[in-house]
Write a structure and sequence with these properties.
The structure is a homodimer.
Chain A lengths: L17 E14 L2 E8 L2 E8 L4 H8 L6 E10 L12 E12 L16 H6 L1 H4 L3 H23 L3 E2 L17 E3 L7 E3 L5 H9 L4 E9 L11 E10 L3 H20 L9 E3 H8 L13 E2 L1 H4 L5 H4 L3 E7 L7 H12 L9 E5 L5 E3 L7 H10 L7 E7 L1 H18 L10 E5 L4 E4 L4 E4 L26 E6 L2 E8 L4 H10 L4 H14 L7 E7 H9 L29 H7 L1 E3 L8
Parallel strand pairs in A: 3-5, 6-9, 11-17
Antiparallel strand pairs in A: 1-2, 1-4, 2-3, 4-5, 7-8, 9-10, 10-22, 12-13, 13-16, 14-15, 14-16, 17-20, 18-19, 20-21, 21-22
Helix pairs in contact in A: 4-6, 4-15, 13-14
């Protein structure tokens, strides 16, 4: 037993008791003949006191301690003369009479404080030290709490957690698989699952009724800030349900998490929005509805004024930035530059200032008379002091750009408070997504998503208009999860594969076992999956998922701490019967 | 909403209510103008009744149903005239007035009953049907309960579940790694973890204090009945602990699981046995102590009687099989054949019958006079009616063979009841294990295990005698888990690598980041890992772990249902810059 208490535990009620603590030296302050040491563990900080007059030897020992030394101390709990209200243990201090150094520490390469001086690279290389920082560790405590409460809710709702295999077969559709060469079956490979989709559907065929799993999934994609090659899903599936049942259960789950993890209660049902409305009013299938600022389409009103940009655009829409009429030229230029960035790719931005005196000032005064501008402003219900921002072009592209602008304005206006949560269901997704490049329709969700019955006739005439029983859970503009009611009829599934351009042979080769399973009494079923990493980073108020992952990889997919991936021993390659081809250089 | 109740829910109190159920047709019985259909879901069975006189059309529809059809029925809950006490819903039946076929089913390739007619191969190919069987599904329900209760206990004990990466670096020591080629770092490979050992130790360095994870681990080994290429560990680690702290916490966990999952309470502390005693008295580091039948060493007593087999053996020991003196010649021959099997490899077996009349009859009467046999029997405290079985030879080999014999006798005597659980801690493991083939010492547990302080002087003089702070949890002869107090001192860890034959360069290359972490204030720490698959199969009374895994692999590491592993598309290999070498045939 190395300790009787943790470093976050002692209070006024413990005064007079003897205690033994163990932890890390956070800081040392010497004040005359007194030395104060803050000792830290996961649970908190406690102040230790050493008095030269009482024990000079111990006092000297304490003064030789360094930051991050691991120590064990025994002493008496005493009331502080200067109570520190900022520390949970701030009422007390320990009058130390025994001090043991359990392990020494070199000076860490960066300071172990909430606001560290360490850059990203050094923090990742020494991740085990970075994880000592309260801010990083508390994200992982939050992650534990979210996963635990998720399980508690789903268990209560009769869901069974079933582990599905990690070594599975490769299905080259969709994102790229990570593959694993098999030594027992030379020349053959396993793949790591991008999701347990097929297995959870099979579990429904098996009658498991309610399945979930908090499970690692893998995608060999080029990485972005919010992507990791391995990520964690809360994966769920239910049998004998329609969309309403699924939404109810998982709205319940989100409310449970908000309540038990964030202490936020949502009394009302979460709002629902069709995908079509999401695009129309927010230019997004994951609108941030912490603030309104809906898109207003003004093509009709702005046309016919010889402004060729608008006249030639199939789509003209804008937003009204409340109270922003005072934006300076510089601020407006910034916004223009913002939408012109390659990531957004807009050509420009038209503004209309609704001045306090009721007049209008715009960047297109040449084309629009004051009464025209007034008419436009009326579409937005704009008030004096507001700023209207208009964009135009091809519809989807412009909506996407305007969405980014809306979020930027929302941020500038402080309307995107990380402590405010606005959950939302997006429903009625299109079944297919058209890809110009390959001139082909793809499944927007995945090939197992059930079309809406009433849209079935459109399958042959207007694929793009067919809606699906798919849904996403969106909070604050982040897609936390999504799913669908699945096809459970073999013939419908075959037709869907056909519409997606699969030959019967290819469908059989990739999904034969699912199609076979559908012959033996597959129940109606549906489900969804939440991204745990995103959920944690949302709850933690993080911008990237990286700091809610204990040992993340960098943008090249590397673990810089353990220096992985790495070259293998030749013997390992030989056992797998593999050869690495020489890298061909350009020009060869 | 497809149903108002599940098929296991309705009771007498529901009589008179209208209900809608959905599920699978388990069986259909026609009795005159009445048809009875048992409808099944995960929660149970309910009897449906259709009466030709009431609704002839519906009656006909019901008679056309096949096994495993998925149906939805609505009807009134009625009291049964013949109550079925073997069914939880046996008090009631449903007078059906609406029946809808949700999906049809072909005749399954084997019967979906507890005792199926399906062989292993067909059951694995159609695993999704096999999982419909109550006996298989209940194993997975048990697995869910064990995992959930494990988490509940550990959460209560302030453990944090932290996910460690699946794509890590390869450490070719130990078992073979599965590897994953990296596309973003061509020519380099990730490995799949054999355990999160290094990560959990780093988390202790990070101050996480109490870590756990229920986590998939991977070993590319040739498979046996109780091995799978992917398996699940309950992996745990604690800081500022000694062995006693770890044993207490995890004895508590086992008691919690027995109580909340099996409804078995253990009031007393689990017994503890040193590794040396395990070998001496049971010939095993995982003794089954559901029954006594300890080994008795008799080398001294049996020597000097011109029986060259015993005289030339360094070790002679035996067991006393209570009440087995009546074993026939045939039974004794069976036992001799049993120990002579290649898996056990003993040369023979000597028996001494302690007859009811106080005389002795043995297979070595030629060498031992009645008074000699009496003296031997006295060593065992054998009573009239008992049977003494003796084996001899090299100590470890003979102990191992005698252990198998003891288990066999125990089984024959019905002393290995699957509903009796005898937990046990094995402690004081040797630090090293000598391997004759390579003439080298290996770490018995792993290279991070702390030696016992008092044995440190032996490190240079008698490696084999150095004990470690390692421990195993054994129940009914199954090693459920094990762990150790770890080395937290860099110098000691370096010395250990040296003793294990690592060059400093190799140690640095493989474990550099751990050695580096030890420089920055590593706390004393220790932990253990439980095999979840074994724990579930023990609780379920299974002989193999396979039936507590939803989608297991066969002995060739294949998933026969989805036919994985498989050959890759050439384009996938090209992207990874890999080439499969042509298989060389023998003689080339």
């Amino acid at each position: 037993m190395f300790r009787t208490h943790t470093c976050g535990e002692l209070r006024q009620t413990n005064v007079g008791q003897q205690t033994t603590l163990a932890g890390w030296v956070q800081r040392i302050r010497r004040m005359g003949g007194m030395t104060f040491v803050d000792i830290r563990d996961r649970y908190g900080l406690t102040q230790l006191v050493l008095n030269q007059d009482v024990n000079a030897e111990l006092f000297d020992k304490a003064n030789k301690l360094g930051r991050e030394f691991v120590i064990q101390v025994t002493g008496d709990v005493a009331l502080r003369s200067n109570i520190n209200p900022n520390m949970e243990t701030g009422d007390i201090e320990i009058l130390v009479f025994d001090l043991k150094i359990l392990n020494e520490s070199k000076t860490p390469p960066f300071t172990i404080e909430d606001n560290t001086d360490g850059g990203d690279d050094i923090r990742m290389k020494y991740r085990y030290l970075d994880l000592r920082r309260n801010s990083v560790r508390s994200n992982l405590e939050l992650r534990h709490a979210i996963a635990f409460e998720t399980r508690r809710y789903l268990d209560k709702m009769s869901f069974l957690e079933v582990e599905t295999p990690v070594l599975i077969g490769s299905t080259p559709e969709g994102a790229r698989d990570f593959v694993v060469p098999s030594r027992m079956n030379l020349g053959q490979f396993y793949a790591l699952p991008q999701s347990p989709q097929l297995f959870k559907q099979l579990l429904m065929v098996s009658g498991f009724d309610r399945y979930f799993q908090i499970v690692k999934c893998f995608r060999d994609e080029d990485l972005r800030a919010d992507r990791q090659p391995e990520f964690t899903q809360i994966d769920c599936e239910m049998a004998f349900v329609d969309q309403e049942d699924v939404l109810n259960i998982f709205e319940g789950m989100m409310k449970h998490l908000f309540k038990f993890v964030k202490n936020i209660e949502f009394a009302d049902a979460f709002p629902r929005m069709t995908w079509a409305d999401g695009m129309k009013y927010y230019g997004s299938d994951k609108p941030d509805i912490r603030f309104e600022m809906k898109f207003v389409e003004v093509k009709e009103v702005v046309s016919g004024h010889n402004f060729v940009v608008f006249d030639s655009s199939p789509y003209v829409a804008g937003i009204c930035a409340t109270g922003c009429a005072g934006y300076t030229r510089k601020q407006l230029d910034e916004l223009t530059d913002f939408v012109k960035r390659p990531q957004i790719g807009a050509k420009g931005l038209v503004y209309i200032r609704c001045e306090a005196d009721g007049t209008f000032k715009s960047s297109v005064d040449k084309f629009y008379a004051p009464e025209d501008l007034k008419l436009i402003a009326a579409q937005f219900n704009a008030q004096p002091g507001d700023l209207i921002l208009l964009m135009s072009g091809e519809m989807r592209k412009t909506q996407k750009a305007l969405c980014e602008l809306r979020l930027e304005i929302g941020a500038r206006l402080g309307l995107r408070d990380k402590n405010v949560f606005a959950p939302l269901w997006i429903i009625d997704f299109p079944l297919f997504e058209y890809d110009e490049e390959t001139d082909r329709y793809y499944a927007m969700h995945h090939p197992f998503t059930s079309p809406m019955l009433e849209d079935l006739p459109l399958l042959k005439t207007n694929k793009g208009a067919v809606r699906s029983n798919a849904y996403d859970m969106v909070v604050n503009g982040v897609e936390l999860g999504g799913g669908s009611i699945r096809i459970h009829d073999r013939a419908v599934q075959q037709e869907m594969f056909h519409h997606l351009g699969f030959t019967p042979e290819k469908a059989e080769a990739q999904f034969g076992f699912l199609m076979s399973a559908f012959q033996y009494g597959a129940p109606p079923h549906g489900g969804l999956a939440f991204g745990l990493d995103r959920l944690v980073s949302l709850f933690a108020g993080l911008d990237s998922i990286r700091d809610c992952i204990a040992f993340p990889k960098n943008n090249s997919g590397r673990d810089v701490m353990m220096d992985a991936p790495a070259v293998l021993d030749q013997s390992q390659l030989d056992e797998l019967n593999l050869e690495i081809k020489p890298l061909t250089t350009k020009g060869e």
